[in-house]
Amino acid sequence: MTTRYSLPKYAYIGLAIILISEVLLFQGNEFVATFFTAIVWTGYILLMDGLVFRLKGTSLIRNRPKEFLLLIPSSIILWLIFEFYNFRLDNWAYVNLPESLTVRWIGYAWAFSTILPSLFETAEWVEATGVFSSWRTKPRPFYAMVLRQSIILGFCFCIIPVLMPDHVVRYLFGFVWVGYILLFDPINYYTGQPSLFRDLEEGTPVRLVSLFAAGLICGVLWEFWNYWAHAKWVYTVPIMQDFKVFEMPLVGYLGFPAFALECFAMMTFVRWLLKVGMARG
After folding, report:
1. How far apart are CA 197 and CA 128, in angstroms?
2. How many C-beta atoms lie closer than 10 Å to residue 99's C-beta?
3. N or C: which end of the chain has fewer CB within 10 A?
4. Which helix (H) or strand (E) is 196 found in, with range?
5. How far is Cα 256 from Cα 216, in angstroms, rounded to an integer?
């Protein structure tokens, strides 16, 4: 029989934030309409952490607060990397932003800081439900040559969009959404960190599938909540603009699971760098 723990009070606060912000949004509250994305995802993080605790008895906020706090600045920095790519890709743009640059950047930072916590809380919840716990694959050893080729290919995928001409680069968004997985996950494997390659090698794909599902769940919610917001993003990708679900062209939803895997690989690498730096210090 599965143990169920008490739902923390902050989970109810998170749910209240989501529901109240949605009511205020449709009532035309200017503050909520402007900062809706950041507000609703803050509530979502509190709610999901509570749901994880209810299933596991442990969670990021309750038991690993340092890890949770590290995700906040890391989330901002990580997303700014993708914003840099968007200067070349020109795949999305922000509309109806506050006129004040100070207020605008506060909104950016708040919204961007919720990305990694939302993804990883959702992945922990998916894994905690046990829906994929019995999944096994045939163990397949990855030879050193395959891992080296992955690193080289990932590096190329990350660099090519920066180098290509404007009329080509807008079609290369797929390179950006998988490049860092191929680049960093083999490095994580070599350094003994959690690795998707190692999970597949051992025939235990639960983490990979949970992250995949988390990316899809968050992706749908990102687009759903963004659709109703006043300050929001719109897509300018050059394909399937007539086949949208909310603001996102349908094919774009394939990018969210890849993005979740990419965030995991990148954040695992960051944690390893910090450990190495602290050990040397």
Report:
1. 21
2. 6
3. N
4. helix 196-201
5. 6
Helix (H) or strand (E) holding 218: helix 206-228
Contact 47, 80 (CB under 8 A): no
Which token pair is 56? 């596991």
Give the span between the Cα atoms of 122 and 37, in whole angstroms.
Answer: 17
On whether the pTM is more than 0.85, the answer is yes
State the pLDDT at residue 278: 62
Q: What percentage of the chain's residues is helix, strand, coil (to nearest 5)?
A: 70, 5, 25
List the structure tokens of 230: 């006043």
**Cβ 124 vs Cβ 59: under 8 Å:** yes
Contact 12, 46 (CB under 8 A): no
Q: pLDDT tens digits for 46-70?
A: 999 999 999 999 999 999 999 999 9
Token reading at 103: 């207020």
